[in-house]
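Subgroup meeting minutes
Present: P.N., E.W., G.H.
Scribe: E.W.

1. P.N. recapped why we're keeping a running log of single-chain structure predictions: easier to compare across weeks, and new members can see raw inputs and outputs side by side.
2. G.H. added today's entry (149 aa).
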Amino acid sequence: MSHDKIIFEISEIDKLLNDVASLLLLCKERNPDLIETMASAAVLHSFYNGLENIFLHIARDYDKTIPSGNKWHKKLLEQMNTENNRKAVLSEEKIQQLSEYLIFRHFFRHAYSYRLDWDEMKELVLNIETVWAGVKIEILDFLKKSEKD
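Output recorded in log:
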């Protein structure tokens, strides 16, 4: 059941952020060194992967369609703000916030780790918990409304 898979992915993202809480706190207190920056980048990557897993479950099970083509990742994210026989999953504000994580994830997958620039990823790392809290509320709200329909 899609609902259970989405709840599982939510718990995995919660666990990820809980497990790296000390790293996130360190990044708030001082600029991380190279190894800490690389670890932070891996967290951003894992965070967005978890979100995309949720979006894929919704696209497959609720919308019955998964985008294709070169920009399918971006289309999938945007699909979460459209109504396809269901309510929108995420607000435009959340889509905008998450698009920055998607852009970073794409960069991370195609760059050497030593090329990471803390200044370019700083806001994503420092805001990840707040962004996740808001996104999680919207996803859970979507699930509750879907159960009633």
